[in-house]
Inverse folding.
């Protein structure tokens, strides 16, 4: 088996710890606007609306909408449930937009920057995320993630696990699927990529959903690499 | 006037010296395959077929084709003119593909890496080139160009100076055109971007077409910045 040329990365959960970061942003937002709630639970609920919101795009119930827009709709729904008045006489658009961009300000897991720096020496590092380009670019700029290319859902105009999200990313890189290795903390994502010919690396993120996480605690299939961190992944790939 | 958030870069001629680099690759290719010609002139002729090849896509004479494919067609035409036999009994596809990827191996002008490193501290640096994603990614990897995003023609599926190449790049960055500054060594490119609301920076590349260059020797319009190099551009923008 020849070497892969590019590593394509899932981002939310695999590269960044969205839960802790969104909760941190929520606490600051709450303080600024006098809103009290359990912000970790809020982060979980916000994330809970992620798959349903993409499903409506995948199923053709609505035209293409980028993740920033889906996140914002979910945010407004959750703030409404908390009794927060939005718009005139209440929270204005700028405040909502700013909190929505919490997803642009997620912190990487502690092993990520070092791991990516090593992996970048040998491989093309591309994102293959459902996050839109601006979100991933702004996150990378803030966190120091040295991607060679930001691809995935928005440029493919479809959400993982739909095949075109993977296939168009490989195509834009000028590579066959077998020349790409999908890196993710989620079995479903890796299974979808593998079915299309991608190689696969499972990186365990046992705290993505907090201490009581039940899913994705281990690789459920015979993926090419199983690693505990990006440093471990670099070790496994010999870079 | 508020600051731009992103700088969007033309690449061929502005960032990299395609003429010297393609001629260098040509000499190596010629040596390998016993083909003798003036490789600087060959580079000029190859580049000469660039605009006509894109025009056929722009005019709808043919469906979308990425620049690697247009480059390859032009290359085969030029090799044919030299009497080189292609295909069976002659030069094989791998040899043609490898020379075609000369455009992935272009050297930057000497001021580029230092200039980009400074500019990256404050701005999102995105390519807005007619080059396809793989071409720009491979070039950046080899030359150490630290783009935050590789966008432009292929993701917009249209070639500059058509408006969507600029507008879709800004949209993918989540920015209004006025938040983007187009950086180019070509007056036409900057005029097209400015007509859409982009800010503009002209960087003079008086040797792009060699010592006898006649066009683009000076900024022909009142662009926001006029610079002699990327270092000069960084100075002008105060970073």
């Amino acid at each position: 088996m020849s070497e892969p040329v590019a590593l394509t990365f899932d981002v939310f959960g695999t590269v960044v710890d969205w839960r802790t970061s969104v909760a941190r942003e929520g606490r600051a937002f709450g303080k600024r606007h006098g809103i009290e709630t359990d912000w970790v639970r809020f982060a979980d609920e916000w994330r809970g609306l992620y798959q349903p919101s993409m499903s409506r795009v995948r199923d053709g119930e609505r035209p293409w909408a980028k993740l920033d827009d889906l996140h914002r709709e979910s945010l407004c729904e959750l703030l409404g449930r908390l009794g927060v008045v939005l718009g005139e006489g209440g929270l204005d658009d700028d405040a909502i937009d700013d909190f929505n961009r919490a997803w642009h300000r997620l912190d990487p897991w502690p092993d990520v920057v070092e791991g990516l720096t090593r992996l970048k020496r040998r491989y093309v590092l591309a994102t293959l995320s459902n996050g839109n380009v601006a979100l991933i670019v702004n996150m990378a700029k803030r966190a120091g993630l040295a991607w060679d290319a930001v691809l995935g859902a928005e440029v493919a105009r479809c959400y993982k696990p739909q095949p075109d999200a993977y296939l168009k990313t490989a195509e834009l890189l000028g590579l066959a699927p077998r020349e790409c290795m999908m890196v993710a903390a989620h079995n479903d994502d890796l299974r979808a990529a593998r079915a299309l010919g991608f190689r696969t690396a499972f990186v365990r993120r046992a705290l993505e959903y907090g201490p009581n996480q039940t899913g994705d605690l281990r690789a459920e299939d015979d993926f090419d690499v199983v690693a505990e961190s990006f440093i471990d992944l670099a070790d496994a790939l010999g870079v």
User: Anything to note?
Assistant: Chain A touches chain B at residues 68, 124, 126, 132-135, 137-138, 140-141, 146, 148-151, 154-155, 172-175 (CB under 8 Å). Residues 19-104 of chain A form a domain with the DNA polymerase; domain 1 fold (CATH 1.10.150.240).
